[in-house]
Amino acid sequence: MAQGRSPPPEIRSPERDWAEEAELEEKFDDAFDIPHKNASHDRLRRWRQAALVLNASRRFRYTLDLKKEEEKEMIRRKIRAHAQVIRAAFLFKEAGEKDLREAYTSIKPATASRSFPIELENLTALNRDHDTVILQEVGGVKGLSNLLNSNLDKGISPNTDELLKRRDVFGSNTYPRKKRKSILRFVFEACKDLTLIILMVAAAISLTLGMTTEGVDEGWYDGGSIFLAVFLVILVTATSDYRQSLQFRHLNEEKQNIQVEVVRGGKRCGASIFDLVVGDVVPLKIGDQVPADGVMISGHSLAIDESSMTGESKTVHKDQKAPFLMSGCKVADGYGSMLVTGVGINTEWGQLMANLSEDNGEETPLQVRLNGVATFIGMVGLSVAGAVLLVLWIRYFSGHTKNPDGTIQFVAGTTRAKQGFLGAIRILTIAVTIVVVAVPEGLPLAVTLTLAYSMRKMMRDKALVRRLSSCETMGSATTICSDKTGTLTLNKMTVAQAYFGGTKLNPCDDIRVMSHGAAELLIEGIAQNTTGTVFLPEDGGDAELSGSPTEKAILSWGLKIGMNFNEAQSNSEIIHVFPFNSEKKRGGVAVQSDAGVHVHWKGAAELVLSSCKSWFTLDGSVQTMSSEKYDEFRKSIEDMAMSSLRCVAFAYCPCEIETIPKEDIADWKLPDDDLTLLGIVGIKDPCRPGVKNAVQLCTNAGVKVRMVTGDNIETAKAIALECGILDADGAISEPFVIEGKVFREMSETARGEIADKITVMGRSSPNDKLLLVQALKRKGHVVAVTGDGTNDAPALHEADIGLSMGISGTEVAKESSDIIILDDNFTSVVKVVRWGRSVYANIQKFIQFQLTVNVAALVINVVASVSSGDVPLNAVELLWVNLIMDTLGALALATEPPTDNLMKRQPVGRREPLVTNIMWRNLFVQAIYQIVVLLVFDFAGTSILRLQNESQENAEKTQNTFIFNTFVFCQIFNEFNARKPEERNVFKGISKNHLFIGIIAITTVFQILIIEFLGKFFKTVRLNWRLWLVSVAIGIISWPLAYLGKFIPVPVRPLQDYFKPTSCWRTSRRPDEEEGGHR
After folding, report:
1. Any transmembrane segments, and where (predicted)?
2. Contacts (Cβ under 8 Å, ≥6 apart) of 539
């Protein structure tokens, strides 16, 4: 029997030893550096404790809720324990309890009058108790299907009314979802920001004191304007966060929408897991998720992994003695079919998911690193704000602060207490607002914004992201280990060549030269040794095939050579099955007919051939396999393989019925060492259009594409040459092209030495793929791996980025992966690389823009406050600047679409500093320009702007308004520069980003409204057209300045390495990276 294959044991390596040592070191090192996969709760807790946070509910909204994770685990344990206790108690009940059985077997008149003669409560109890005795009382699975008005062969009717009726009676295959947060909840959470709370308290005090001292008409402006600005910040923040939450909710729903096969009206068809109803017949194969509770109809070597429900990591073999299947479990081995008897909340899985349905988020390494950057900047900002507060208070209370008209603001013993207190509060609001600007609370959230945007766009590019961090990591990928079938090829297979009786058939479906007996044996093997089906429509239309592409190709060829599928299956009875095994790369079946017992094998041609001791001639006689004949068949296989054909051989052996065990047939090992070769077919699977260009694009981007396939090494080489993975002029022998067996048998050291050179690996097993991934990671590579089979799960899990196939991939593979490629196309994998690089690039753009605003605003306010005792940018103006910089800036820059230029760079090192030397150069050029120009206007603005004839109060207001207006326009124009930190043409592709243009337009319009119409609130005055032109002109100068600045050379060594001020900027490298390995 084919036993359930557990994943290969974890292979210990020096990488792990280094990782463990690094883990210990990191306890005293960088709290803001977490692994991109499987970070421990202690590591996640550590960075939270180290972060400087002003609004925890907002900052940690999209991170993993550690407390809820612990609660989830408790709920899982309770539900599992509850189910097990019920079953254990039920087993102790006496088997002869009639009342209990009558609940299932008796059909009451009231019930019989309904559509189904079985109550929902009774069906739910049967699923829960797993009592085979009661199942037999109702007539087994056949009797149960009759009670459910279903047919074990044809399933239920696909009629919509029938499906709706079943949903009404037995429920739908969904579970209650927790209500999504309303926008008011996001408004409330935005209000929790500590700085905004302080500002609102200060505004309330200012409002109260202002109205009592200056009257209601004039006194409410100071406090009211701060309230208005705070309200605007809260509204924009809450709206942005709410939209992100909707995007994540939609993506989570997509992840849960599993596609399954179901038999309805005698025909196999695809359906969403949510559309399943009680009475459906569902085929199951290795790697599938059991989509609902049910009872096995038939199965061959069917083994189920029930660890998701029982918590025990062992497989359970299913047969007529133990036929019950639980929703949410995985098929570990074999295949079969099931009758759905429970869906949705009426299953244990549904109850579990109903309690765990809320997605609590996930932090990514980049997000955590940005929290470190935000903490560092925030600490600097707090220090600066504290210094400004102290200096302004000392100057104020010592009588060195003057009003616009020249009078001293505070005179000890003269100024009233209310007036003095109001002045002190005004200074406090300025200091707090500096903190608002200085602490980039939105910096880590910009990652969430760009990831949400990227994930939505990636869905359109046929990639469903399951793990957020994979978006970032994909930008650092240095190598992609790709499958061949379906990824590099179309997965549309047809039999192109056939060899039987040592002769090539021409055409390949002409079997007239074969004897009748040989043809019958071949058709018997094709019809019985398959997991596919043939559906013949009643109207006489074309046959509809189901199964894997290889199975469909062989079944289609079988029909062409005269196979009647249903007749061939009815002529013999299956005794035992050995499902296709990716390790042995073949599958077998024992069938009994009037002619006796035959064991049929089908699989990789050279492997099946090696087990053959004889071969069938065209006239039906059996000849011994001589070495010359073996070489002849071997040469036929190589010729087909070199023509890019996948070679499949058919063989059989007769079996004496006396040798078949009467009992425990499930443990019978099918004979596989004395076979008779029937024939060989070559299956054509063309390369996908565009794959060659995609491979070339990866090569130019510094990403090496490797093919890892289970196919014949010659087939693999031919396809690799066709796809451009191998160069016809380059080396196409070992170690560049290698067989999995050769690689597997090497020592770990030897594997490490040749891993970099391997370009094609043929006849590989899933364990060989895992070994290659581990060897490449030890060399310092960031490895992306594609996989579709159950046994690919360890490699997908081990890889830095696991990419499963959405069409051909099993549910086990998908759950082990980070990204699902929905169209199984390699070109979609390359698009994921582009998006990964885009995520990183967009975050860097936003950081450059935000740091420029931070540096300029802080320096201007500090210098002005120390020198003059006042600041040119007041609290309300700074809140508006913060809104431009934080939320609107993130929206504009973090949603830039990827460009072709991204694929002309080398991969981003995972430990490279977030702020590169190029960014520092751009930042300093713009910040120094803004600081110098605006401080000149702050100190000599009256004369430069020719305001000498104005009153002192009006001149100062005009000067400060001009400085504020100029500062904002500098940021607006610098936002363009931030789009392209490394390119001189910052306008390239701008017309495609409508959101960027919209935000620039909105910011400009609001700035005009503030200056011209909201002067009372912002303490500004209207500017004449000359001052408007000068403001805009100063802002525009940032464009040529940025262009010229990009000619300034920058050192290769990161600037942070010269200073290393805090751990959040530190770049830690692995030992192999320091030796020059790839990052």
Report:
1. 186-207, 219-239, 373-394, 427-453, 918-937, 995-1015, 1027-1045
2. none
CB 684 within 8 A of CB 496: yes
pLDDT-derived band at 785, boundaries 50, 70, 90: very high
Across 65-74, 362-371, 454-463, 474-483, least confident range:
65-74
Mark 269-295 as b/e (b = at least 16 C-beta within 10 Å).
eebebbbbbbbbbbbbbbbbbbbbbbb
Rg (CA), the chain: 36
- Under a CB-based contact definition with an 8 Å cutoff, are residues 564 and 543 in contact? no
Q: Please say if 483 is a catalytic residue.
A: yes
pLDDT of 1072 over the 60 cut: no
What is d(CA 1020, CA 880) in angstroms, rounded to the nearest whole number?
A: 13
Closest to 350 measured CA to CA, from 420, 256, 280: 256
Q: In terms of C-beta density within 10 A (0-12 exposed, 13-18 middle, 19 or more buried), how is residue 630 classed?
A: middle
Split at pLDDT 50, 70, 90, the class of 102 is very low
**Alpha carbons 476 and 910: distance in angstroms, whole number:** 6
Mean pLDDT of 949-960: 86
Tens of pLDDT, residue by residue over 270-329, are 899 999 999 999 999 888 889 999 999 988 888 888 877 766 667 888 888 889 998 888
Window from 137-146, 421-430, 515-524 with minimum mean pLDDT: 421-430
**Cα gap 703→828, rounded to integer Å:** 15
- Which residue, among 887, 872, 981, 882, has the nearest Cα to 934 in the 3D structure? 872
Specify whether the CB–CB gap between 291 and 282 falls below 8 A: yes
Local structure of residue 10 (DSSP, 8 states): P
What whole-number percentage of the chain has pLDDT above 70? 84
With the CA atoms of 341, 344, 349 and 351 taken in that order, what torsion angle do they form, in degrees rounded to the nearest 10? -130
Q: Answer whether residue 7 shows pLDDT above 80.
A: no
The confidence band for 18, taking pLDDT boundaries of 50, 70 and 90, is: very low
Q: Are strands 259-264 and 293-305 parallel, antiparallel or unpaired?
A: unpaired
> Using CA atoms, how far apart are residues 292 and 636, in angstroms rounded to an integer?
47
Nearest-angstrom CA–CA distance, 469 and 1065:
20
Q: How far is residue 864's CA from residue 870's CA, in Å, rounded to a whole number?
A: 6
**Cβ partners under 8 Å of residue 1003, min gap 6:** 884, 888, 968, 972
In contact, 682 and 498? CB cutoff 8 Å: yes
| SS3 at position 192 | coil
Residue 821 near residue 805, CB atoms below 8 Å? yes
Which one is catalytic: 222, 461, 483, 886? 483
**Rounded-to-integer distance, Cα 282 and Cα 260, Å:** 8
* Residues 248-285: tens digit of each pLDDT: 777 777 777 888 999 998 888 889 999 999 999 999 98
The mean pLDDT value for 965-991 works out to 92
Give one DSSP letter per residue of 86-136, joined into a string.
HHHHHHTS-TT-HHHHHHHH---HHHHTSSSSS-HHHHHHHHHH--HHHHH
606: Cβ–Cβ under 8 A, 6 or more apart, which residues? 634, 637, 647, 649, 712
DSSP string, 961-1014: HHHHHHHHHHHHHHHHHHH-SS-S-TTTTGGG-HHHHHHHHHHHHHHHHHHHH-
Compute the mean pLDDT over every residue in the chain, rounded to the nearest whole number. Answer: 81
> What residues contact residue 578 under an 8 Å CB cut-off, 6+ apart?
1, 2, 301, 587, 588, 589, 670
Single-letter code of the amino acid located at 231 = F
Longest dimension (CA), the chain: 124
- β 596-604/645-655 pair status: antiparallel
Select from 656, 655, 638, 659 the least CA-distant residue to 647: 638
Q: How far is CA 466 from the centre of its chain?
A: 3
